[in-house]
Amino acid sequence: MKKLLAGLLFSLPLLTVQAQERDYALTQIRILTSDSLHGRGYVNQGDVKAARYLQGEFARIGLQPLPELKSYLQSFPNPVNTFPGTLKIFYNDTELQPGVDYLLSPESAGGSGKAKVVQVNWSNLQRIKASKCRDRVLMADPGTTKNKDSLSLFWRTVAPLNREAAVFVSVEHGKLTWSVSSGVAGKVLIELAAAVPLKYGKPRSLAWEVEQKAEPAYRSQNVIGMVKGTIADSFVLVTAHYDHLGRMGAATIFPGANDNASGTALMLDLARSFAAETPKYSMLFVAFAGEEAGLVGSRYFTDHPPVPLKNIKMVYNIDLAGGGDKGVTIVNATEYPAYFAKLEELNTRNGWLAAVKKRGKAANSDHYWFSEKGVPAFFMYAEGGVTAYHDVNDTADKLPMNEYEDLFRLVRAFLGSL
User: Fold this and answer.
1) Whole-structure pTM value
2) Going from the N-terminus, what domains does the chain have, and what CATH number goes with each?
């Protein structure tokens, strides 16, 4: 009985710490995905408002601004195309639901009108003449083929027809997935879910009203805080991008809970932990902006480093931390095998996650520009438990967070071992 009681008493502080970590992360995710931050995109300056919140949280945690910047913020140019207001699409006079029935292509222009629809698919691809598409809505459906050569042929044949069309609609047979663009096309571009013609019949007409605004002078900002180490002029960076896709029209928000409010929350939680001690190396916690727009913020950081790149020992970049049932994957693991072996050994010894998987180089997040400039950098993303990605369903209430404590422990132990 005494041993059992002692075991229970020992486990209580650990359970309390675990609850505190998870509760803190969930609070941060809910704040970052709230409507007031507008999906951390560019409509209503959602990313700017998120940066202000993170700046305040960095200060509250006890992180210090870099003397070189004299603040927590590193501003940079980030031109973007936005859809700030009215967005209405009518298919056969039935209004469609944005984010569910369709997406605007990120580079879409704005405008309004109504026109008849010309359908193009494999059965009539060679018969449609460009003159028949003039001032019409061209709806192109490549079907479900995955063959790259076939798809290339299809879109090459469609291209001259599209030049004559007033609006271009591509039929998407997979999941609707949105992104960000800095460029603007010459017409309204729509990605239509393949289920729409099944629900509402063969297309006869399409009406559109799209408010679009290019922001060539838009500025975003990285948020950077420091915990000074015993070796003050050597740095370990813990990074996560806080930006997401924002609003598509006034009413449709892409919350970005898993991508990447979850990774930002984990970064903040690690910052809380390291701020309570004096680490061996100085720790920089960097919340990058502009990742969804093409790794813009991290590229600016590495082109205008507030600390010498040669003084950075390691970069640990975190994204998609809301799941983890299937473990984590480490991009650049093959580039830095000794670091990966240490990470894998820590996980195996402690039995935290189902797997720590190895992956090679990839330009798929903010680690990329660092490793391209010779700075050791890992990118960790969790797998399993979350299916929403770049869509309106990536909400805080859908994150399982059941592996969060083990994710925290793995990264904390690895960083502490450097």
Assistant:
1) 0.93
2) 24-78+218-417 (3.40.630.10), 83-212 (3.50.30.30)
